[in-house]
Amino acid sequence: MLLAIDPLKDVDAFHPVNVGKIMIGNFDFLPCTPAGVMELIKLSGIEVNGKECVVIGRSNIVGKPQAMLLLHANGTVTVCHSRTKNLSEVTKRADILVAAVGKANFVTADMVKEGAVVIDVGMNRLDGKLCGDVKFDEVSRIASAITPVPGGVGPMTIAMLMKNTLRACKIHNNL
Ligand SMILES: NC(=O)c1ccc[n+]([C@@H]2O[C@H](COP(=O)([O-])OP(=O)(O)OC[C@H]3O[C@@H](n4cnc5c(N)ncnc54)[C@H](OP(=O)(O)O)[C@@H]3O)[C@@H](O)[C@H]2O)c1
After folding, report:
1. Where would a tag sit more exposed on the chain, N or C end, judged by fewer CB atoms within 10 A?
2. If DSSP codes are grouped into helix, strand and coil, which group holds residue 41?
3. Residue pLDDT, tens place only, 59-68
């Protein structure tokens, strides 16, 4: 199904051609959520170069491309998933921790290093309310920066989708 999409109209950047281009760092489009995370990091003046970056989640739409973009930004990247052993030992190393698990309040303060930057990609429903993967109340006390849910990564994803759509329009009209 994905192959039916013209890679130059693929504003989600899910087509294998675009996935490959992201891998080699020569891309037309970036996937919206990881791109939004990178934009948040950049606009907040946070340096990725040489930092320990840990991504929890290895999905094709978030975890894997997120890891690749952090790597392109010269982070030292570790990707965790459901088979990762001693998860909190790994997450506690992170200067920049990205949670893309899909489990409400999964990341607790004891999993986070003091002063870490914590990016919460999760969008979960708990008791009818939208919440992230990070237990915001306790983690926000030790993080140097943290994204809320709602109002963090979600709106950035939409902004990046608009950016990609504009870019696709320009490509197709030679603008
Ligand atoms: N804000 C936004 O715009 C936006 C955009 C996209 C997604 N999201 C949200 O982000 C979250 C993740 O989305 P997704 O599509 O990446 O989800 P997904 O495809 O379900 O992937 C979840 C990942 O979390 C890992 N995981 C599950 N349980 C774990 C555990 N106990 N310990 C460590 N890792 C664990 C899984 O590992 P395995 O690979 O081993 O199963 C998997 O790699 C969801 O809440 C989704 O709604 C938000």
Report:
1. N
2. helix
3. 999 999 999 9
Range of the domain at 152: 11-166
pLDDT tens digits, one per residue of 31-82: 999 999 999 999 999 999 999 999 999 999 999 999 999 999 999 999 999 9
Determine phi and psi for 60, rounding to 5 degrees: -70, -25
Considering only CA atoms, which residue is closest to atom 3 of ligand 1? 154
62 ligand 1 Cβ < 6 A: yes
**For position 162, which CATH number holds?**
3.40.50.720
Whole-structure pTM value: 0.97
Identify which of 123, 124, 134, 162 to mutate to test ligand 1's pocket (most ligand atoms within 8 A of the CB).
Answer: 123
Domain count, the chain: 1
Pocket mutation for ligand 1, best pick of 14, 59, 89, 91 (most atoms within 8 Å of C-beta): 59
- Is residue 2 domain-resident? no
DSSP code per residue over 129-160: EEE-SB-HHHHTTT-SEE--SSSSHHHHHHHH
